[in-house]
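Appendix B. One record, verbatim.
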Amino acid sequence: MSQCIKQFILCALMSLSLFSAAVSAEGIKLKSADLERVDSDWLLNATFQIELTPGLEDAVQKGVVLYFQTEFDLTRSRWYWFDEKPALAQRLTRLSYQPMTQQYRIASEGFTFSAKTMFEALQAVGSIGGWRVIDNNQIDPSKSYTAALRMTLDLSKLPKPFQVNALNNRDWNVTSDWLRFPFLPNGPNIIKR
């Protein structure tokens, strides 16, 4: 009898660990980011891995448009006053599903892309290339800065009934953590995870 109980407890613990691993896999994670200097601008290239919950995927299939906001800021610490923020940038990416063509549509800053699968669509949403985030006139090359980057699902852009649902449901709160890394205007600025 005690052997059966031990096996049952072991099976229950294993299933809970598998469930928690599946839950923690969903969300947004930054895979890589780099800032490259092109003429007098700094361009951001980044890759996010986005995994939606089944409820969010179902909502997109039923016509709910999702907006992903990417935020970048650059700060310089000052001991005598508040931190200086010479550069702030935000970018909104729209993900929708077109039932007539059975394709996902991604739109961001004049760029549009169609994908056949949700996986391809989320890869397109998570790929940022050549985004101008810093003008060289905004920074002092002799100083060091801290760059920060994150991506979130913008709940304020959802239809009102879904906003109420999102407040009560963790599945709808999809965000990455802020990634902070040193930015040196005269050095390499590459982050890989």
